[in-house]
Write a structure and sequence with these properties.
Blueprint: E1 2-12, E2 18-29, E3 34-38, H1 45-53, E4 60-65, E5 68-72, E6 77-78, E7 86-89, H2 101-111, H3 118-131, H4 147-159, E8 165-169, H5 177-194, E9 197-202, H6 205-211, E10 214-219, E11 222-227, H7 229-234, H8 239-244, E12 249-258, E13 264-269, E14 272-278, E15 287-292, E16 298-300, E17 310-322, E18 327-333, E19 336-342, E20 353-359, E21 364-367
Parallel strand pairs: 3-9, 3-10, 7-8, 8-9, 14-21
Antiparallel strand pairs: 1-2, 1-4, 4-5, 5-6, 10-11, 12-13, 12-15, 13-14, 15-21, 16-20, 17-18, 17-20, 18-19
This protein binds adenosine-5'-triphosphate and magnesium ion (MG).
Amino acid sequence: MLSVKALHTEYPGAGGQAIKAAQDVNFEVPEGKLFTLLGPSGCGKTTTLRSIAGLERPRAGEISVGGRVMFSADAGIFVAPNQRNFGMVFQSYAIWPHLNVFQNTAFPLEVRKQKLSRREIEERVMRVLHAVALDELAERDATKLSGGQQQRLALARALVMEPQLLLLDEPLSNLDAKLRERMRFELKRLQRELKLTTVYVTHDQSEALALSHEIAVMNEGRVVQIGSPREIYERPRNRFVADFVGTTNFLDAKVLSAHGGNGHCQVSTPFGTLDVQCGETLGTNTAVVISVRPEDIELTEQAPARAEGINVITGTVHGKAFLGEYLDFQVKVGDSVLLARAHPSLRTPIGEPIHMRMKVEKCVAIPNA
Ligand SMILES: Nc1ncnc2c1ncn2[C@@H]1O[C@H](COP(=O)(O)OP(=O)(O)OP(=O)(O)O)[C@@H](O)[C@H]1O
Ligand SMILES: [Mg+2]
């Protein structure tokens, strides 16, 4: 449905040098799917989204939607933004101050070519206002809204059009944690229900994991990995992705031998030999890092029995942090400290020995580049 090919977008820099904000960005978003651009501040997410919207003119590449070319550097095609018919919510959103909440939301429906009846407009407007929890403020002047309410209004206005392509840049950034979570569910429900093809921009990994069919992780203007939330989280292809998406432990290691077939291999670490998951074929002696998430380390006071498919490392409790639903343990092994997430009922005192059980498929080898 949306296809972005070899996109390069630059800004003029201060010293005459171009700022390469998006470099060789490639991805496809199938009809009805929600695709997320995830990455740290300044990595080029907004630039990529604005390029799709036609608000930036890329230096190279091609963008097409539903088979229609919107931009092609080679063919010299550039469709004006207002001809693209996309719904958009940008990081800085604009609402119309002279209209109330209902009128703001209804406006795009009233000005569009295919006319709807009063009743149809009212139904659609109230449905999206309900989804963004503004139905009770429908009569309120738009200027008398809080920042978060204005943001939800901007979202309602983009959704009401049920556009061919919806472009959302951090649309939930101004909401408090509770409301953001609720809106996340509503947005997901609406997107799935209306089958809106959506490109979603966020630097919040939990938002990306919760909402997306597919995620592109960006760093320094480039896409570094594309995959389903589960693939990105469980099989990060490089250190940046493993580190940015969630919390993880890294262990330096060296490949001893590939087991073949099952994608497992054996590595040596300062804490002994481990069986780990190798995403790609890694040759003997390759330096790698092993990524293990804190929630994938099971802590036990009693030494666990040796078992197939399980790695065990023994250390001592170095520190603890109580976080309500769980307890973070810092476990010292040799010169390293690993983070493990445990149930608050585990009471092992600091300085005492503790065993860490880790499933082989949760220990992921990543090339140490
Ligand atoms: N109008 C502009 N002129 C010059 N440089 C710009 C402009 N807009 C963005 N940049 C630069 O381009 C790079 C990418 O910016 P972009 O806004 O795409 O990042 P982002 O991933 O959306 O970040 P954030 O999460 O902070 O919104 C940054 O280095 C930024 O400083
Ligand atoms: Mg941005």
